[in-house]
Amino acid sequence: MNVDMEERQQDMCPICKTDRYLSPDMKFLVNPECYHKMCESCVDRIFAMGPAPCPYPKCGKTLRKNKFKTQIFDNIEVEREVDVRKRVSRVFNKVREDFDTLDDYNKYLEELEDIVFNIVNGVDVEATEQKLKEYEESNKPNIEENNAKRQKELEEFKEQEQRKHDLRMKKNLIERQIEQEAREMKELEKKEIINTLASGDGTQDATKAVSQVRKSMLKRSSARRKQLDEIMQALNSSRQAKGEDKKHNVPFTPFNGDRTSQHNFDIHDSYYDPFLDELKSKKEYIASGFEVHAVYDRVLTEAFTGLGCYIEQEKKELNDAIV
Amino acid sequence: MASHGVSFDDLYRRSTQYRLWSYTREQLAQQRREVNEKGCRKVDERLTSTPEVSASSIEKVTMDEEIALISFHARSIAKLAKFFNMPSQVRATGISFFRKFYLVNSVMEYHPKLILLTCLFLAAKSENFFISINSFSKRIPKTTPESILGLEFEILQSLKFTLMAHHPFRPLYGFFYDIQNVLGPEVSTKELGSVYDAARNLINEALISDAIYHFTPPQIALACFKTVNEELTMKYLNKKFTNVKVEDDVPKSTDYDTLVSVITECQQVIKDTPNPTKDQAVMIDKKVQFCVNPSLVLKRKRDTNEPDDANKRPRVGAVEGGASTSP
User: Fold this and answer.
1) What ipTM does this complex have?
2) 0.80 exceeded by the pTM?
3) B254: which chain A residues are within 8 Å (Cβ-Cβ)?
4) Entry's Pfam families (chain B) (predicted)?
């Protein structure tokens, strides 16, 4: 019964008592001043004429219509903290690169967390707000610059994603076109053959026609294929650019990362190997993730694993040492 | 060394193949001598428990005979693996298990004919080539799933539960690539391909030799290459390992002269692989059967009704003669 009431309350505007059951389009809004929720029509009604006090009993805070927003989190506490965090981090917007040492950065983060905590939990709110304001005043140019930088980065990332998306779409389109053409081609051939059979003469002409059609089709499809290759290359290159950053990092090893990165061999992109060439062109191998470079890497690594272990000599030394 | 990080060679030194199954020649000989003595003691024990058999009617197997018999049966593992269409990796591991088992036990304790089946089955499992025990034993006459599986634990124990075996096949493949890389247009791909195939066949021989105890897989692979085509291999080694830029922070791990001398030694060891004829093997086998089960002597006496010694002497001489020609 209790739960039922609560649920009902969640779906009912406390001001005008409109129920979601009756008006399913109803939206709840909150104002970051006091986080009292009310429905959209109430906001329109009460605050259309400019700032007005919150209609909740005993609240009385002055609210403005343009500050109202949709509630993202169910829990008002969480919603409030997220808002505060957003506001504070717009001012405290440095990143790790802006500091010389990790300690400095951690101190900075600690300060930020303190402010957020104070504001959210109502500890020394005024003093904290004052501090925030002072900081903002004194670091204004820096803050703006940083914000602009973040914005730019975000835009670049979005642009890149968009580019990738476009390329992928184009690739899909071309692939579909190729398929379609292949289908058409088959159909056409069939038709031609039936025609020839029906007419019963001029076989020569029919095959000629077919071959002509086929030629033009091939030309088109090869052009498409070329386009497809280009797109694939572009896609791969953007992926590789990312991969290169990773290469500089030391890979995980069970030996605390103390493996030497020095090899006495280079892995080339391809070798003469009819056996492997056959495998790498097979569809079922490609689909299951067969990577020819993994093979190169493995066999070359094994070729140089233990090459410099001279058992006779080393075991003898070991034996002598024990004796 | 530690400041330079762990090299590939250090990694190999951490493998069980290096730590437990690599020996100098003296160590290997010592090990085999001990095993042979252990086997002899076992036969003596059996004799005391069957007093009706006279000790003189049993001929113990010598160390050389053991080696000959084991290498004979190692070859039959290869044949059996071919019969089952197993990959070379499984075949090689089976042979390696079998030979390692007889570095711990004597043929006079366990008859190789049974051990080799279990070793091959175990190798198929450890190399991820699934075959069910029923279909395995069905295709081999006079076996049951129990007779094969019964020995599994004993073998595992003798192997000290080390199932990882590094074979020269992949290193050989790696050198096939690296030679292309280093020599480039100096060697035709066709020639290299045929050299590779021949070297790969030679590895099968190397697996039965003592090379697997004295040398590392890449060294064996290079030795096989060198045996097949010395000129090509030396050209490669020369270009690869002499006049290498020695950087300060890289420890010089492979020294050309040492490497070549080690490979040449390895070639010799592979060449000396014992290859006993079937007749020789059958002789030793007979002796082993009596050692494993002394009461067979009585049975045979009853069957033939002939004095045992007179019949056996000349044969033994022939076997010993045969074994000494192929140490």
Assistant:
1) 0.81
2) no
3) 264, 307-308
4) Cyclin_C_2 (PF16899), Cyclin_N (PF00134)
